[in-house]
Amino acid sequence: MTTASPSTATAEQLLRRRQAELRATLQEAAGTALHAADEPAAPSDFKEVADDEAQDTVSDATTAHALRELAEVDAALLRIREGSYGVCAECGDAIAPARLQAVPAAALCTACQGESERRAAHAS
Fold first, then answer.
1. Where are the domains of the chain?
2. Which of 29, 35, 42, 110 to pair with 104, CA 20 to 30 A apart?
3. Which of 18, 52, 50, 14 is nearest to 32 (CA)?
4. Which residues of the chain are under the pLDDT cut of 50?
């Protein structure tokens, strides 16, 4: 294991805290889904059905986002353990400290992130 710099140690603390938050969010979502499945379906009007469907859509989006972010956080923690944290996974250049401070799970430098987003926008 490599010796972590103070900024890497701080990033690791932030990432571990975020990892715990995301896991709690996902556990809560799973518990809510199980609880909702156990509740008997009550007769409802169209407004209640629409409200329930809208809430389900928001919950699904929140869960999907939490899963994606958790994967990014887990990957960043792995990079810390491997000693490659702060190195762009695309070009190999150092990721700016300001970017890592703003987005501790960042795997790409600003330039490569922008290029990745442009490619994704053109693909859709």
1. 1-85, 87-124
2. 29
3. 52
4. 1-3
